Amino acid sequence: MEWRFPKGFAWSCATSAYQVEGACDEKGQSVWDVFTHRPGNVIDGSNGDVACDSYHHLEEDVQLIAAIGVSHYRFSVAWSRVLPNGTINDVNEAGVRYYRQLCEKLVENNIEPVITLYHWDYPYELEKRGGWLHPDAIQWFCDYARLCFDKFGDLVKTWITFNEIWMCAWTGTVTTAGLSDQSADKASRERCARAIPYLVGHQMLLSHGRAYRIYENEFREKQKGQVGITMSAKWREPASDSPDDIRAAQDGLCWQLDWIAHPIFSTCGGYPKRMRDRLNDLSINEQRANKDSILPEFTDEECNVVRGSADFMGLNYYISYKTRHLTEEEKNSEELGWLFRDADYCDTVDPSWEKISGEKSWLHNTPWTLPKILCYIRNKYNNPKVLITENGCADHPEEVVLEDNARIKYCEDHLKALHKAITKDGCNVLGYTLWSLLDNFEWTNGYTMKFGMYHVDFNDPDLRRTPKKSVSWYADVIRNNGL
Ligand code: NOJ
Question: What is its EC number (predicted)?
Answer without folding.
Answer: 3.2.1.21, 3.2.1.46
